[in-house]
Amino acid sequence: MPGERHLRVKLIEKHEVVSIFPKKLSNIAVNDHSASHLNSVPNAVRIPWSVNLEGWGVRVNLERWTFKFTAFRVFLIAFSTVALCATGYRLALGLQAVTNLNDAWPWGLWKAVAVFGAIALAGGGFGTAFLVHVLHIKALQPLARTTLAVSMIGYFLGLGGLFLEIGRWFNFWTPFYSWGHTSPMFETFICISTYTVVQCFEFAEIVTEKVFRKLHRFFASILPVMIVVGVMLPTMHQSTLGTLYLLAEGKLSPLWWSPIIYLLFLLSSLYVGPATVAVISVLNDWSLGHKIPVAPMRLLARIGGVLMLVYLLLRIGDLMLRGQMGTALNGSIESQCLMVEIGLGLILPLLIVFSPLANTRWGLVTYGVFGSLGVFANRANTVVVGMWENAGGVTYLPSPLEWVIVLGFITSALLGYIFLCENFNILGQREGSDAAHLP
Description:
mainly alpha, Formate dehydrogenase/DMSO reductase fold, 14 helices
């Protein structure tokens, strides 16, 4: 058409050139291989071509991106959209319009779940990296990329929770130049932010197997350094999250306050990693059609079980040495919450993981569910239940929008994990994967 610039688009698979108008693709035939490839994935959005915009100096690679639209995923998308709208409402009108937080309760549901809980569950990444790449336990190799993906997403959730918790969220960048050198909260923020960047560099080695392949060798070459740094950093901020509560002696219930709370936080972030992997295996099977082998899951779970047992003995020994066993058994609300946390979140998973039930997939999944919930319960008890008496009669119950936003964090994380696993080689080398064709 006169006066309208044409683009030349080259279909790499067909080796032929066709003309299209800007923003409109005209009459492009798909060869038999591409058509069969598209039809092999029902309810999927798939772009099977690489294109070259000649004359514009731009090369766009659209290489087989896939996302199936199932009922479960549509639900996740819908709920995440609602949560995103609620998040925008919070950012526009402030914390008071959305939450039930107040001067007596400055930390609530978001801090317990999206920050303390998510970052603890994401601890499996550095623990598994240490086992696979430092101790060279090759039997755990099939789980390395899965735990990296879960860990990276967990840390993004933690950063999102920190961002939402800031009253003046538009000042989030201030700690990057105004350093509070003596503050454990500053150390936590810097370590979490830095470690998230390190994980992105680690994950880039996987991404560049499929896109930006010219950078793959670079990211592969720096991967050993990133792994070492990635093992060191979490040991600092996972323990420092507990160190924050050392300052709350006399305010936090003695059932959760401890002079070794930093060590307890670090140990719990290590043993919950294998539990998280066991839970994620259900999502892999149900939504992605991939079964994680039982043998490496069992080995990782039993390593986590040893750490869980050490944690339990330290926890009980600490209560006894501080003379708090009477408080733990007095039948109060705090006591009952502690018994649930220890009974269902520690003792039950330990009984499962060191029994023949650990030889079955669903035994490991049950261990993972209760182990993960136990750590969530510990963080919730520390942030909310343990501070109840100190609130001076002022109560706190999360508002409906607080629940919507925090559940939206979880649904968004599930969507992100599904997309990554469906489009990158997270679950191990597969026949015909892009990684297999690297030069």
